[in-house]
Amino acid sequence: xxxxxxxxxxxxxxxxxxxxxxxxxxxxxxxxxxxxxxxxxxxxxxxxxxxxxxxxxxxxxxxxxxxxx
Length: 69
Prior knowledge:
single chain, mainly alpha
């Protein structure tokens, strides 16, 4: 593999990771709705997931999108 191919492969895997993080954020939103007593913990987890999403985008030169939109 060339350096460019490795970078592209890493970007594809990073994008896949971002997709999984988006799904986790959506799940945490459902947790908050279903079990309001967990709202504080769900919000904290959502913020952590959002930071991870953003960091992956920056680290792998991906277009960052606000997953909360």
